[in-house]
Amino acid sequence: MSDVESALLSAVRLVFTLDRDLAEIIGLSMRVSLSAVAVAALIGVPLGGALALLRFPGRKTVIVLLNAFMGLPPVVVGLAVYLMLSRLGPMGVFGLLYSPAAMIIAQSVLVTPIVAALSRQVFVDFWSEYEDQLRSLGAGRGRAILTLAWDARSSLVPPVLAGFGRATAEVGAVMIVGGNIDHVTRVMTTTIALETSKGNLAMAMGLGIVLVLLSLAVNASVFIASEAAAKSGR
Amino acid sequence: MVKLKVWPMLAAATVLVAAIELSTGIHIAHAEDRFILMASTTSTQNSGLFDHLLPRFTAKTGIQVRVVAVGTGQALKIGQRGDADLLLVHDPVSEMMFVRDGYGIDRRDVMYNDFVLIGPSNDPAGATKAKNINAAFRNIAKSGASFVSRGDKSGTHNAEQRIWIDVGINAVKHSGGWYREVGAGMGATLNTTSVMGAYTLTDRATWLSFGNKGELRIVHQGDEQLFNPYGVMLISPKRFPHVKSAAARVFMNWLTSDEGQGAIAEFRIDGQQVFFPNTK
Amino acid sequence: MGRSDQYPSVLQTVPGPGDFRGPRMVPGILPLEVRRVSLDMGSRRLLDDLNFTVKSGSFTIILGPNGAGKSLTLRLCHGLLRPTVGEVLWRGIAAREVPKHQTMVFQRPMMLRRSVTANIEYGLRLQGMGRRQRRERIAEVLKLAGLEALAGRAARSLSIGEQQRVAIARAWALRPQVLFLDEPAANLDPSATRAIEGVLRAVHNSGTKIVMSTHDLPQAKRLADEILFLHRGRLLEQSSADTFFDNPVTTEAQAFVEGELLW
């Protein structure tokens, strides 16, 4: 049996047997990444709006930095967050290291620049269309950001999904700050890394296929939901 | 037409989830003494030893043991930053220094396994015929066959380094040539070795539980020099007042008790015992 | 060009107080004075030394061929643009960014991605109007603009003519003293144009001062009390509609009134 065949076979076996451990791992992956993306959206979307609509000193620097940070290596983010959360670090007293909260924080840091930079572009496009009318109606910039965020909601979905994709796919950051502890901080990607290190390549690849399928499922359901929302005329 | 307010619901839901997640994460982290955090090595984790030991201990004491499995070098670093409650590692020299420098206390021997030299079945360097491990290493260096090193300051890496020093070969000088430093864990190193048809040093437990052996086999074993002792120690509560010393000590005492030692001896991979009780 | 001084711009009496609610509550902001205003974009002079006064009462139309500077003039008056030279005064006071009590409807209606009702409500919310009052106001303008049947529809799904009526309703709901409109019926078919003109007459009759641009001569004849004739960034004439259409002074205005192609 070839490597590809055995990988597919173990993927199928994993999906159909779906034992408790795997379900737990998938559940944690989704919880961590969805939470991180929620945090990133709460920060990144308003930040993108502010960078598009407001004029303040240092704005261009922030834009360049954000664009550069879209490609931050997860390991570097993981290490930085590790040093922050470590007992010797500035946030050490909270004892968050090696917990799901630490993983959420690391992924939020990783994903926020992506959401912010991509949504800034959406705000720029919408603002060129809306600016005259909103200024004419007397909307201040803060209000305008809220209005655009609402009206551009369908266009803001892809930036958030891009962030979600990055969050679920990365292994470097969660490995360092989560520690890949069984039943506590073990997620899909760290499990794949672990199985690879054990030489269980078919199992690792099978998990990889499951991860891709999950990501597909999330993207498809968001797509369908936003289509439905658009159709309902909202 | 029913106007489902999809977006506000979605937004509210995500905010809620994020809030709950962060707060539960923080909550879990503060759940006092119901769990302890142990930094240990990939060899103990990947072999499945902890899956064998920890449920017994937790069932008996109600204390959950969370394991972060890294190289010995990194485990010691985690300990130095106070990010673990105890360590289970295999590099006696570094462990002594760790205790001497005041980071750890109460170091105890727990168990040992042994290192084995892995190489391709056809053994181009003739390591099998060598009369001891030093001779086998010399043969490899002489033959020009590739040797893959962990290169990560782990216990296994340090053991390998000591052999090169013993035989008087500066292998690192040949790094990039026949000597390959991968800077990775044992499993990743074995995967690389398998693909390259090279030699490497590994602990027996990891080797037995490794699933991608390919053409590799054990080409040398059994020397006293290949003895691989594991030690356990607590992180100093004097240095790091937040560590859960009491619970960690319960676990250390259990590991070194007759019951714990018996559980270690019971553990088998493919019918073979790989860890041997070693309390003195 | 001191024409505005010689010319009485109030040709029609303002409707009775019963038709008023909003504007009478606050001090009037008119007259609007545009003094020696020029607008440069780079090295190009787009508007050149405009001088005119807009007073309450009349239906004022800014007439001229495409590219004459009609839209820019409206945006300057509204406050979206700042003149390079000169000043825009509301009752003698220099304008800040988009002063209150005056609104504008753009050539291409910009609909928020929500229902017709929500579009109208948006402007009212910005003014901090209470929920019940908003409801009443919305019902009122929907009726005036003939949009009652479309109230719950997504604004973007409407035809351009319907969207333009929503835009007018949204602007008018704010009870402005002055309503600027930039070619609101450009590119619309006759029936949509007629509907819009009907709404504009109703707005005008309610006492709101309308200043509207158009390049459409027949439309100007149908609606205007007063004409500002713009050509290549310059104000060539300001006069009553009757005077302008019967006796245009400048050769450009004569040509335009006779239907020749001007640019």
Explain what you see.
The complex is a heterotrimer of chains A (234), B (280) and C (263). Chain A is an all-alpha fold and 234 residues long. Chain A contains ten helices and no strands. Chain A has a single domain (3-231), classed as Orthogonal Bundle (MetI-like fold). Chain A is globular, with a radius of gyration of 20 Å. Chain B folds into three domains: 1-29; 30-113 and 229-277, D-Maltodextrin-Binding Protein, domain 2 (3-Layer(aba) Sandwich); 115-226, 3-Layer(aba) Sandwich (D-Maltodextrin-Binding Protein, domain 2), CATH 3.40.190.10. Helix content of chain B is 44%, strand content 23%. In chain B, helix 6 (133-143) packs across helix 7 and helix 10 crosses helix 11 (258-266). Residues 1-24 of chain C have low confidence and may be disordered. In chain C, helix 4 runs parallel beside helix 6 (160-173). Chain C has ten helices and ten strands. Chain C has a single domain (26-257), classed as P-loop containing nucleotide triphosphate hydrolases (Rossmann fold, 3-Layer(aba) Sandwich). Chain C starts with a helix and ends in a 6-residue tail after the last helix. By secondary structure, chain C is of the alpha/beta class. In chain C, 35% of the residues lie in helices and 24% in strands. Chains in contact: A-B, A-C. The interface between A and C is medium-sized, with 15 and 23 residues.
